[in-house]
Amino acid sequence: MARPPRKKKDIERAALELFAEYGIDGTTIRMIAERAGVTEGALYRHHKSKDDLARALFEEYFEGFGRLLEAFRAETTPLETRIARMVHAFLSAYDADPLGFRFVLLVQHRLLDGVRSDVLSPVSVLTRFIEEAVGRRDIPRQDAALKAQLLLGMVMQVAVGERYGRLELPVTGYSAEVSKAAVAILREV
Amino acid sequence: MARPPRKKKDIERAALELFAEYGIDGTTIRMIAERAGVTEGALYRHHKSKDDLARALFEEYFEGFGRLLEAFRAETTPLETRIARMVHAFLSAYDADPLGFRFVLLVQHRLLDGVRSDVLSPVSVLTRFIEEAVGRRDIPRQDAALKAQLLLGMVMQVAVGERYGRLELPVTGYSAEVSKAAVAILREV
Amino acid sequence: MARPPRKKKDIERAALELFAEYGIDGTTIRMIAERAGVTEGALYRHHKSKDDLARALFEEYFEGFGRLLEAFRAETTPLETRIARMVHAFLSAYDADPLGFRFVLLVQHRLLDGVRSDVLSPVSVLTRFIEEAVGRRDIPRQDAALKAQLLLGMVMQVAVGERYGRLELPVTGYSAEVSKAAVAILREV
Amino acid sequence: MARPPRKKKDIERAALELFAEYGIDGTTIRMIAERAGVTEGALYRHHKSKDDLARALFEEYFEGFGRLLEAFRAETTPLETRIARMVHAFLSAYDADPLGFRFVLLVQHRLLDGVRSDVLSPVSVLTRFIEEAVGRRDIPRQDAALKAQLLLGMVMQVAVGERYGRLELPVTGYSAEVSKAAVAILREV
DNA sequence: AATGAATGAGATTTCATTCAT
DNA sequence: AATGAATGAAATCTCATTCAT
To answer: Which one, A99, A178, B170, B183, has the greatest CB density within 10 A?
Structure first.
């Protein structure tokens, strides 16, 4: 009952940043320990393994994104408003913690397969969102699964664009335009 | 005068497939050699290191994508036609060689930084394409850099969607809808 | 708090002996680990690489030789006495630890270039010793740099002679004659 | 009966220079082939193995040194003259081909053990030379084996001194002084 | 005679993880 | 809880040598 959280947070933050920059395999336990100001053994007090640590971080972020979108999907505001809020929330997440976002971007293809199936994924939320809008006749009949991918791809690529110097921080500056594009995609069939 | 390099192609194909499935770090030299039917040392006659091999493959594909788009950008057909062709070409590339495409998708964030600057990147081509369309008054004034990212993100995410079982092969089946979405994004500002 | 490094000395001694017998390249990490009773990885906790280990050992011995001679150079005893002591000290060093001496002999041409310039080398000490003796009019004016090499070459070759079975252990048995030769070289110009 | 000598000499010279600079293990077949302007396989037309090549070169030089000294030992000129000629011949050999000399210096401890016993070694010649001088009452009774080592050590160290920038080229410039030192060592007992 | 692709065996090094302290 | 030495198991890479051409 004492205070374990102390170093645990340091370790996790250090790991996140290093994973975001060098990938999971490119990051060693020693690198994490060094940046967190602990020694290698200490890490195993809090996580079973390096992979376990990476997975925990990924799920945390991934689930966070899902919940973020879910909150707006369930809202009863107009379609345009909900889309704008979703886009803005996503881009705000990037501005608030670019490394966390990049971490997800970088390791997704390695860890996505292992995510627990009860976790709400962004794609699932978007798909449901589109299906409901169709059902409500807000937008024409269309392939919700496809459109969900298109929307997600668009928004994520804004982060990628910033990462590679093609777009500028803060990316929330692009919120309005991206929202408009999203709406156009859903309305125009 | 000596024996011709029969195994080079085998090695590169084996590497590509394994990289696409397990990532660069998740693929060992032994795995590549085994699949290519050579010994581990053979790889080093043709490439300086595993990383060098990965980089060579990446540039080859990456440049290929750039050239693909460039061909259509330069065309004098109507905007809609060119967009449709670009989208279709991209998605066809995936259907023709899903592993090659996935390889690029999977390793891009690790290798993108090191690409030679004279290589024509898809984003550059798209940006120029949009700027020219604006100049020609085909579409309203808009942020070409942003829109290029949005278009690219959309199309690439279709591949990701297929990879994770959300969309179906052949992805060229989505060409029409994706093209329409792309046009909508550019026209609607 | 963790366990103290019990094996470091074992590793270094094992390496020294093997280097002395088989050279650096002729000695494998496995050989060192085996003789030291550790696993191969253990070596890397204490030294960055095999070369680093060899270099550390070399500097230790090389500097030791320099200090050995320096002690006698600074003495205020008669020239003959100091020479005799230097020679004796050198040859004693060989009798006390032939492997250490042979190690230096064997690897010098590979590692000499990289020695830190602030390390007192035997040649420097001898050169200064001769220059001071000239300044004091103990011996005639002469080329100190050359004579330093001659003296060093003589003494080292005694060790070589023993190594190849031309001379006998203990080599301190040759101290008197070698000293006389050294004096003759300095006095007779 | 055609002309095999062509590339053989190139290969041997290339090997000698590389061995002198990097040692035998530090020199790869590929390095030799590259410098000689042939490919790796070509080397095996002329020598059974890299080691065989190194050994052949070493014996050639080593025997050459022995014969050089032997010629002067057998002369009927005064002792001083013969010593002066021996020393000069040795140092001239260095000036004429420093790399060949350094090669011997660098690899001697690795290859000396395997030299055919019928090869006339410098030490043997010098020992006999001193014994004969004692027998002829030219110099006092003394330990010929020891003195042979001292003489050899002195002269070789001149080369070492040049190699490490302590002495200057041409080293034949030191002939007179080294000869005087040699004589002093033999006369003074 | 020569080429250089390919082999085969091994060497160095890395690193997640364990465990005595 | 923490330390960091040591392990153990690979992974990358090197390179002398062989051999089909």
So the answer is: A178
